[in-house]
Amino acid sequence: MRDLLLASTNQHKLGEYRAIFSALPFRLLTLHDIQLEMDVEETGTTFAENAEMKAVAYARASGMLSLADDSGLEIDALGGAPGVYSARFGGREASYEARFRLILEQLKGFPLEKRTARFRCVIAVAEPSGYVQTVEGTIEGRIADAPRGAYGFGYDPIFLVPALGKTTAELAPAQKNRISHRGRAARLAATLLRKWPQSSAERGSSSSHQLEHWERRKEL
Fold first, then answer.
1. What is the value of pTM for the model shown?
2. Which of 7, 41, 67, 135 is least enclosed, having the fewest CB within 10 Å?
3. Which of 218, 192, 152, 204 has the alpha carbon at shortest distance from 67?
4. 143: domain CATH number?
5. What range does the domain containing 30 cover?
6. Which of helix, strand or coil describes residue 49?
7. Which position among 3, 33, 39, 70 bears the catalytic label?
8. What do you get for the CA distance between the two ends of the chain, in Å?
9. Is 70 annotated in the active site?
10. What is the C-alpha radius of gyration for the chain, rounded to an integer number of angstroms?
11. Which own/partner pairs from 194-202 qualify as long-range (CB within 8 Å, at least 24 positions apart)?
12. Four-CA torsion 171, 177, 118, 97, nearest 10 degrees
């Protein structure tokens, strides 16, 4: 059984991933489990770029097959913001309550039908060689007029799922995982991992090609 490093320190994410990946033929490990203290700066302009950078960096540092993600909230009326800057919107030290206030102020006067938004999550799985593959999940919704709900984390309290009439923070974890952007991406990642070779050597020339791709990007 191969080890799979879940490269995140976010306990909410780790809980979701453990639940979805529990049946996979991998031993799931965290950064804490292997005592790897390392931050990867998210300098990409897309969720995919950031996810790939993190997965490859952690795979190389740990010598293990690694999974990392990047996700965030895209609000159409704000030109897609906060997007890849979701975790830094309003400043790195800003609380999510402060971010809610900032977003709701910017959307003041917008009717619900004009408050369209989506959560997007890209998950990358990488070998230490640099070979990497990504999957993506989204969920469409609206921005609520006020925060609601006690479940979830991040922007969940202001993300309304119209079909349910609830924010994702009002959904029990199991229900949220069935429809969320991360849940959808994770299930695609699970499908990817079921087909993943149990030895990194089986990746052959594809690994070398991907490694060259990342080295070129580093030089730019």
1. 0.87
2. 41
3. 192
4. 3.90.950.10
5. 2-219
6. helix
7. 70
8. 38
9. yes
10. 18
11. 194/24, 194/25, 196/2, 196/65, 196/125, 198/1, 198/2, 198/25, 199/2, 200/65, 200/127, 200/128, 200/129, 200/131
12. 50
